[in-house]
Structures are given as C-alpha cells and as structure tokens.
C-alpha cells in the first residue's frame, strides 16, 4: 500500500491546500494499487496566529497580544466569517485554536455487488471509499460559534453574539467507511 | 478600545443556564434570549392521553381542538402571537438517595396575543378576572333577583367584579377542579363586589356567595370550550408565567421567587391577571377570532 | 470517463468541501439550468460507530462553555460521552465493535443540484442535501409515520354564528415504519451523558439515550433570491425509544428512567418560494430566523380579512402546505404511564425569531 503522510503545521487555510495535490489522475493511479493511506495533523493558532502578531494598533487599542496555549484571549484564535446575504451579518467560527490529528484514513475505490442486506447486488456499482481512522486526536481544540455584524473584529462598530464555545481534548474513537457514489440518472 | 470594551462588545449572549433549589427540588433552566412572533394553526394539541382515576375514559390531561396562536386582521394581514425568552426547565428531586428527574416544562418569559381553540379538557391553572358592566347579570337574573339588585343600587352601568378570579372547576358542582377540567367560573364561596356606580346597599352582594354554580339563581359556571379565543396579556402588556409542563409528582415551579403548584401529568399554566373577561363574555363565551386566511369558522 | 475516475473526483470534491462554504448560491441562467439533470452524490456510512468525550479521568474533554447564569457565573456543559452505534449499544456501553450502516446504497444521503421547477421553486437551481427518502406507508397511506384518525368537527365560532365543518385530526392510532427506507439494522442508537458545572463546581448529571433512530425524509434546500440565501427545510426524526435519567453530581445514584416510546417529529419549514425560510444577522450581531409571511393570495378580501375571491392559493397551502406533527406514543416513568402526546397538522403562517442579549 502506498503511504502518504501529510503533516500540516500551519493555520487553517493550509488544510484545504494540503489535500489538494491528490488530483483525480493521482487517485485513479493509486486506486489500482489498493488505495491511499493518509495521516493528518492540523495545528491552528496553537500559540497565536498572524493577526495578533501583525494586528492593527490604531485608536488606542492594540490587537496585538501574546498568546500561549492556555490563553483564552479572543485575539488568539483563527476566525472564519461567512456572509449569508448582501448587506447582512456574518456567521462566525471564532477563536479557532488547537491541534487535531489522525492516522490511518484510507482512500480507495471498491466494487459492491453483494451484501448490504440485499442492496449490494441491486446496486452493482463502484463506490469511492474513505476508510475512517480509528481515532481522532484533539489537543485543546476550541472554537466559538457566533454571529457578528462585521467580518473582522477590527472593523468599525464591531458587534458579536457568542452562542457557545466548544472545547475538545483527547481522543474520539470511531470506525467504519464513508462510501461516496454518483446518484440519479446516469 | 480597552479590553473591557472589547469584552462588552463580544459578550452578548442569548443562551443562559440557571440552577435553583426550592425545598427538596433542584431546577436546571435553559433560557434563550429571543423575541418571537408566530402565527400558527394546529388541528390538535393533546397531552397526556391515558386513563386517569376519577376521569372520563379516553380523555386527556390537555386537549385543545383547532388550536391557534395569533389572528388574521380584517385587512388580511396577520397579527402574530408574541413570545419572549422561551425556556426549557428540568426538575430533579433526591428520593431515597436517588437523583430523580421529576419534571420538565416549556415556558415563556412573557406572552401576548390571541390564543384560540376549543378546550375539551384542561389540567392546569387558568385564572380569569371577571369584571364589567352589571347589565348581563341583571339580564340573566329572574325578575325577583333583578328587583333585589335594583333595590341594592346595582344598575345596568354599575361595574362589578368577582372577588377572586374565575378558575377551572366542575361545571355542575362548582367545586374547583384543576384536573381535566371542562368548566370555568366562580368556584363555590367566591362572590361579586361592586367597583363603581354602586348604590348604598350594593356592598351586600359580597355576602351572596356562589354555591353549586349559582349566585341567587344566576349561573356562575361555564363550559370552557365556549371561550374560543383567549386574550393572553392585558391592555397590551404581556403576561408572565405562561408555561406547559409535565411532572411525575406535585411540583411547585418557581418564577421570580413565586411558586406555581402543579399536579402529576401534563399541566398548562395561564397566569393570574393574564386574562380578563366581562360578564357578557362569561355568560355567552368568547367568539373565536379568524386565525386562517381561509378559515372554516368564517368562510 | 470511467466510473472509477468519477468516484475519485467525487472524493476530491468532498475533501475540498471547506472551500465551498463561501460559494454564493445565485440563480443559474436558463442554459445552465438545462444542464441540471438530477445527478447527485450519494453518501453512506458503512459499519459506522463513533464515540467522543469518554475517559474524562484521563484528561479527555468535550465541553460547551461560554454560557453564563443570571448571576453572571460561568456554566459549562461537560459531555462525558457522545456516541453513535448500532442497535444494542446498551446505553453507550457497547459502541466500538457494534456498528451501524447509516443510509442505504439504494437510498443514500444525497447531495444534489436540483432543478427547482420540479420542487416548486421556479427557474432556480436548488442545492439540496437530503437524508434517505421516505416511502408511501402501507398503513398511513402517506409519507408520514403517523396513522391518523380524523373526525368531523362541527363547531360554531360563537352562538348563532358560522358553523365550522371539516375533517380534522382526532388522534394517532399507530406508527407505520414501512415509511422508512432505513430498515431496522440501519437505525442507529445515539446518546449523550453530560455534567453541568456551575462556577467551577459540579451540579448535576443527566443522560439521554435514543434507540432505533432514523431521519429519513429530512432535507435542506438552499437557493439564491435577490442576492440572499433562502431555503426550505424538513426535519423528520423517528426514535423507537428515548430514555432520560438524572444522576447526582458525581454521576452516581441515578434515578429511574423517563421513557418516551415511539417518538415522531415531522417538521417542515417553508413552502418553496412562496414561503422561504431565511437566516440573517443584523447590525447588532443578533440573528433572525424567519419563516416567510404568506403573501396575499386573495384577489379580493371580505370584511373579516378572508378571501372573497381567489382563495385557491390558500386552499393549496392549508391542504398541501408544510406542516409539523409531533407525537410520543407513551410517556412512562418508573411503572406509571402518562399516555400519548400529540400535536398534529401544525401549520406556520409566519414565524420570526430574533435573538437578544439576556
């Protein structure tokens, strides 16, 4: 089995790019060899992100701050803001921090023509299988779900409603495969 | 901007969890800071359909047919029901060293608007202030009683009220009945008093108490289902303490330090002072308001 | 293109799903719409089980914080177990090694760009994420799990006034699980145990366990309207058994079960483009969820605000529009039964819920 280790130790957007090099060509090539074995390690602002290093310091207020792993300072985490409509406010995942890793996510294609309590034979087709890792490891992962009137906390008149903060540490156990396949008219 | 100011700006919270204790019962309350406008209709709201000792087989703790919140105005616009700060609360009790979940309730910080439905049976607390012109009382009275009322100085325009609010009761005996009630009215022992426009002797009415659903032969008990639309809140100010609960034993739910006792099963509380009717309404019932654009009660 | 490569491409699409979050759902033009041909991506979870928050003693933690009480003290919900497993999970004791299939190859979870014309949203491409579809029930005769008995109601709105006449729901007489595509082996056990911590001290422990859960028939549909994202959604949940019980602050001395049997929630919000559901955040940072006010479908009004002309649109809404039904077959506590609870054929004409600072 071809092994592909992807270690990412950067902030959030890098996560998406890190998985990008697997083009459909690559995947079709490796599927013939039995699939892909992936491990991942994502660290987001574990010790503070770029905003608090280079952040603005106008109006007598400094956005710059010193962030340690245990700091709950809202300036320390990453932030994703999504606008739900022109002129409207923003749905926010704020103060995203921590380290998330897994080992043993597998990718392969598979033909199913039996099993699944009778569905397999009727289905008789290929699926793309993502074998889930046995564990997801979290190290002081946290994020806040919020709504805000502006994309950035440094914007003028910034207001935000924090709904809740989720903190995860330790191990989540899982098993199984995610099967993906085309549906509808062929 | 200082750190404190930043804290204020991002500190808006709409979700709150509170723990309270009253006697042997602990409460955990989940409150959502929300303003809600709703206009809805439902064929049936029925809670607690099981056979209960002393009650009609097949009946329910609460059953309201053609339930609706809000109304449709004459100009074809909607007049929604207003709710603020809905909450969900759990009650726990230590029973012989075991932590028991003994009750759940869904409540509203405040409620204002039209609640419609044919109330077939209601377990709970529905207290209605009865106050208004005495004319309907005089109309309902026989000639002899009308003469007595006239002698006491109570004319058509005299304003009277019940000493205690009307409550859920047995519509044939006048005994208070908070369980699967089908009637509402002046419970035995309640009486009327004169508020304004009173004659010299009108104070005498408070010695005339309700007994077996009547005062001087004037009926004082009514079918609950004739009250087809209830105005929750009074004079455009919202009612507090409206809730729907389920408990396995008698629990007193606490709001602002005041307890509302409940009985096992499903229970609906429509708070004191939340609803007011005049004597005309109490004798004839209340007309159901339009709740749909295409409403079988109107179209 | 071979199926293998197509499958692989779908995989890549999934992996880059994070990048799609900001994609605007704007209307496609007619030509593009012609290309929307009902192809989608199906998902199922095979032999799946999941467990988080366990082993608190060894530093594992799954906390929900940022919540205050009325005195401004911090309140933390500490989840000590959250699990998804197959039947027989024994309240979370048997999770890993006891998996379940979520979705079927023939009835999967489905992600699809749908031609809006087929679902009452004219000239729009609609993004739809749906759970396994439902079937027409052999007993219920609809795609609802509830077997309903109706009654003829003739009641007046007031003495000497119009008498209402019509068939309305009287009660639920049964549960028709033939509506579900997910067979018994494809219905999951879910559960959560949490501890409530107030101002740093443990206050209460509560557990909730659900068995035989299926969300068949649920969907979320999103499309763009006037540069705004609007949607319709349906949440349909069946659980053959829901159990709740409390324990003391140390998680011991648990009380008796409060048990809901045959829990059914069938809730549809929004009705195509005639009643869109919107979610907005305003300039104060508060959010608003709105189920659109039904726009006037009447050509002419009568004196009480009803239709004197052109009521067909409303008739369609009241007969075929979105509805909600909630039913619990029986509530029992210890050895006592408290019977069924039903809210049936609830239709929302308007709903607006805005958050505010407590």
- What structural class do you assign from the helix and strand content of chain A? mainly beta
Oligomer: heterotrimer
What's the pLDDT, averaged over the residues of chain B? Answer: 88
Structural class of chain B: mainly beta
Q: Give the low-pLDDT segments of chain B.
A: 1-9
Number of helices of chain B: 4
Amount of helix of chain A: 10-25%
Number of domains of chain B: 2
Structure in words:
The complex is a heterotrimer of chains A (186), B (299) and C (358). Chain A is mostly beta strands and 186 residues long. Chain A has one domain. Chain A is 13% helix and 48% strand. Chain A is built from four helices and seven strands, in the order E-H-H-E-H-E-E-H-E-E-E. In chain A, a hairpin with a 6-residue loop joins strand 3 (78-83) and strand 4. The longest helix of chain A is centred in the first third of the chain and has 8 residues, at 24-31. The model of chain A is unreliable at 1-24 and 26-33 (pLDDT under 50). Chain B is globular and about 65 Å long. In chain B, the strands form five sheets. In chain B, strands 2, 3, 4, 5, 8, 9, 10, 11, 14, 18, 19 and 22 form a twelve-stranded mixed sheet that branches. Chain B has a three-stranded antiparallel sheet with strand order 12-13-17, with no helix packed on it. A two-stranded antiparallel ribbon of chain B has the order 6-7. Mean pLDDT of chain B is 88; it is low at 1-9. Chain C has 358 residues and is mainly beta. Chain C has a domain at 24-48 and 110-134 and 180-189 and 204-354. In chain C, the strands form three sheets. Chain C has a 16-stranded antiparallel sheet that branches. Chain C is globular, with a radius of gyration of 24 Å. Chains B and C meet through strand 1, strand 2, strand 3, strand 4 and strand 5 of B and strand 2, strand 7, strand 8, strand 10 and strand 12 of C. Strand 7 of chain A pairs parallel with strand 1 of chain B.
Lay out the secondary structure.
The complex is a heterotrimer of chains A (186), B (299) and C (358).
Chain A: E1 2-7, H1 13-18, H2 24-31, E2 36-44, H3 50-54, E3 78-83, E4 90-112, H4 119-123, E5 125-131, E6 135-148, E7 160-183
Parallel strand pairs in A: 1-2
Antiparallel strand pairs in A: 2-4, 3-4, 4-5, 4-6, 5-7, 6-7
Chain B: H1 3-10, E1 12-13, E2 15-22, E3 25-32, E4 34-49, E5 60-69, E6 71-72, E7 78-79, E8 81-95, E9 98-122, E10 124-133, H2 135-140, H3 143-151, E11 159-162, E12 167-169, E13 183-185, E14 192-196, E15 214-215, E16 218-219, E17 221-223, E18 229-232, E19 243-247, E20 252-255, E21 258-261, E22 265-277, H4 279-284
Parallel strand pairs in B: 10-22
Antiparallel strand pairs in B: 2-3, 3-8, 4-5, 4-8, 5-9, 6-7, 8-9, 9-18, 9-19, 10-11, 11-14, 12-13, 13-17, 15-16, 19-22, 20-21
Chain C: H1 3-15, H2 17-20, H3 30-34, E1 40-52, E2 61-68, E3 74-85, E4 100-102, E5 109-115, E6 125-130, E7 146-156, E8 163-175, E9 188-198, E10 201-214, E11 219-225, E12 228-247, E13 258-269, E14 277-281, E15 287-291, E16 300-301, E17 307-309, H4 312-320, E18 324-333, E19 336-337, E20 340-355
Antiparallel strand pairs in C: 1-3, 1-4, 1-5, 2-3, 3-9, 5-6, 6-11, 7-8, 9-10, 10-12, 11-12, 12-13, 12-14, 13-18, 14-15, 15-20, 16-17, 18-19, 18-20
